[in-house]
Amino acid sequence: MFYRHNACKIWVLDPLPQRAFSIILRTIMRYLGFGIKEADFFAGHLRLSNGQLVYLEAREMSNKLSLKAAEGILANSKHLTNLNYKWGRNTLLKHVAGLLEGTARQTAMLLLTAEALSQKILDHNIHLVISKRNVLNLDMLNSFTTKLKVYYHRKWSFDVIKQNRLSSLLLFFYLFLKELRWLFLSLIDNKSISLEYIKNDTQKPSLLLFQEDDISFDRSYRTQPHWFFQEYGKLPFQTFILEANFIKRLPVDKELLREQGISLIPQRERHLYSRRIAVSSPVCQRIRKDILNSTLIGLFGSSSEASIMFRIVMLLNAAKVLCGFCEGVKIKAFLICENYFLDSDAMLLIAPFLNIKTISFQYSNRLSNAVPQMLTTSDMMLTFSPLYHSRLQTDTIKPGKFVDIGYIYDTSFKYVRDRAILRKQSLRQAGAQFIICYYDESVQSDKYGLISVENHCAEIEALLRLVCSDPTIGVVIKNQFQRNSPHLFDRIAEVREAAQKTGRYVELSYGELRNIVFPAEAALSADIAIGHAFGATAPLEAALVATRSLLLNSFGFKSGNDIFYERADIVYPTIHSALKAIEGFRKGEAKYAGLGDWTPIIDRFDPFRDGHASTRMLEVLQDSLKG
User: Fold this and answer.
1) For the chain, which terminal residue's Cβ has fewer other Cβ atoms within 10 angstroms, N or C?
2) What is the Cα–Cα distance from 268 to 258, expressed in whole angstroms?
3) In what order do the strands lie in the sheet with 473-478?
4) Structure confidence by residue, pLDDT tens digits, 257-271
5) How far apart are CA 329 and CA 56, in angstroms?
6) CB 122 within 8 A of CB 54
7) If phi over 0 gives left and psi between -120 and 50 gives alpha, with beta otherwise, what is residue 182?
8) Rounded to an integer, what distance in angstroms lies between the CA atom of residue 237 and that of residue 259?
9) CA distances from 193 to 270, 284, 320 (A)
10) How far apart are the C-alpha atoms of 356 and 40, rounded to whole Å?
11) Could you give phi then psi for residue 531, rounded to 5 degrees?
12) Cβ atoms of 283 and 327 closer than 8 Å
């Protein structure tokens, strides 16, 4: 429909591929008169006509879209409706909504990015062409944008293969062959799984965990099990931690763990041990039947059912493996914080039928409402305070009950004080009369992130230059992830080196993937902390150790906490405005007397503040295991 004299301009949102076919195609199209250009943008900088950031709006949109889409998929599938009812608690609905959230967010990001970019174009005859995911309803997608003509096409990728009718059958055979391979390897290794890995005291009840952090008894870092106190001696229950092989972790002393009644179980051994028990388990046999039926539905059911059945078979297979393992070692309670794990949903599915109590706990200053991946259908949800209850449930997906225990890591504060005091003394000796602590949020290098590398480096650079220009200032930086450490960015290397030479600049770092230094340690080394309103867990932790704490909100981010933030002088739009306020505070200006002081509002976030949150968690675990 296009001719050279009326050719259109084509903006490609994703990075243009450099493959030979793509280059040849672009050359031909340019010769025909089509203007092809990769759109230059970063989602964290784009705003819609209503002033909202594309990234934040897409996140809210995807939460609603994924929940609606999941309800629609179950309503249109008798098989999935029956599965959800049979296993109960709407756990299957929660799992499907969580699966769709990533797809919904990608689609929402493309729709809103195109809408934001189109505001600069005078010609409003704008068309958007994006890939269509069968799991998302087109009417719902189109309702989110009325300013674009949207066309959908099928994109061949691994996700499309998973939506193919043969995918569930192929997955079934793949999982079977993988177990056979593990069995063969165990025979070659001549290892007795039940004796070497499963040392279970049958007189003790057992607790199950997944590996979510580094495993260590060093309570001065963010590790598992953080509710374990060596000074209390060996606990009256056995603990099994299922190892995560896909993330690099710190080395683990497995023998020391076993001496304290804690067993770290590798994935292969979990599967093979489960295989022995599952043969005679009624619940496992029930799951096998559902796996077979789901595979058949994937082959012969409707297209909407086939598109999701691959994921359902994966969930049920994980449930089968966990079922056999839990019955074999007599698991009585299950504890989780990362509710988006596949195995987490699998455990929530089978736990009621194995008489296992399920407990989830809050670990971050959660600001968003009802993110499907973070929801839970556990028996109990342990939270910081009542403030977070409404954010962790919907009308259809919720835990059995909420139990407030306070900020979960406050028990570790006492273990970091000595290091923090020594560090503060060292900075003072180097001339620092006032010390600023800085926390980042997760930095994204792709085009669809909220915080860019440029933003991240600009904030750190402002602090580094302050250290170099003011001999009375010290700075302590604690990154959330190791990949965002200042020493990895060449653009600030020169000023960072200059700041280090003053002796008044420190980077706190420990761990492999996550920087498992507690924000509290950095806060106790400083006079004031600076973090971000988006996320805000580290600044909250700083406030809980009575360090003044500021929040940067350069994105106009809105949350349910704003009503409380307004009662204190803690929110500033940029790093420069925050530093200017700190300068006024140091000069004794009256209007900054309450700078960073959370005292008027801190009880809303943690009504306890006594350093015993983990002790309360341990009491909950012991009560659950008694049952």
Assistant:
1) N
2) 19
3) 505-508, 473-478, 434-439, 528-532, 548-552, 571-572
4) 888 889 988 888 888
5) 44
6) no
7) alpha
8) 13
9) 9, 20, 18
10) 52
11) -135, -155
12) yes
| Bridge partner list, 383 | 404
Residues contacting residue 343 through CB under 8 Å, at least 6 positions apart: 210, 242, 318, 322
CB 555 within 8 A of CB 56: yes
Low-confidence residues of the chain, pLDDT below 50? Answer: 1, 192-195
What CA–CA distance (Å, rounded) separates 621 from 627?
10
DSSP string for residues in 418-433: HHHHHHHHHHHHTT-S
> Which tokens in the block code for residue 159?
């996700």
Closest CA to 92 of 68, 74, 69: 74
pTM (two decimals)? 0.92
Q: What is the DSSP string of 152-169?
A: EE---SHHHHHTSTTHHH
For 27-56, the pLDDT digits (tens) are: 888 888 888 888 999 998 999 888 889 998
In the numeric block, the tokens 């093979």 are attached to 272
pLDDT at 138: 66
Counting Cβ atoms within 10 Å, is residue 324 exposed (0-12), middle (13-18) or buried (19+)?
A: buried
Backbone angles phi, psi at 9, to 5 degrees: -90, 135
Q: pLDDT at position 315, please?
A: 95
Query: What pLDDT score does 193 carry?
Result: 47
Tokens 């949109």 -> residue: 61
d(CA 263, CA 259): 9
Q: What is the DSSP string of 83-139?
A: HHHHH-TTHHHHHHHHHHHHHHHHHHHHHHHHHHHHTT-S----EEEEE--TTS-HH
